[in-house]
Amino acid sequence: MSLGVNLLGVLTAKAAKALPAAGWDIEIVEMHHKHKVDAPSGTALLLGEAAAHGRGIDLAAQSVRVRDGHTGPRPMGTIGFAALRGGSIVGDHSVMLAGEGELVTLSHSARDRSIFARGAVAAALWARSQKPGHYSMLDVLGLSY
Hints:
single chain, alpha/beta, 5-stranded mixed beta sheet, globular
């Protein structure tokens, strides 16, 4: 329900589409509090889906979620995930697009859980004037992939 995370998803899809897989690797790095039990987080997966959408690929077939030991070179076109846990961090997410000699980083930091309530209120206020139907937060923001 975070407005910022939903914006980050759209920006991720557009960046992934604009930068060719042959020259640009995508890594999604997320960090949450030490009590979080799932990894990668739902938000990290949302960002991965956005990147995959931008690239026109299937995330399940092209994601790399664990690297340990001698892994060999990175397969071209994959989307990597790194999940970090510690302290009381609500949620930090970065999408890193790494090219030869340059790095583009898109990120969002949730500093307080009230952002989710504010997003839900914004969506409810927006929905009041809409016809019945299926909508997403991207509709609330007036954005799309």
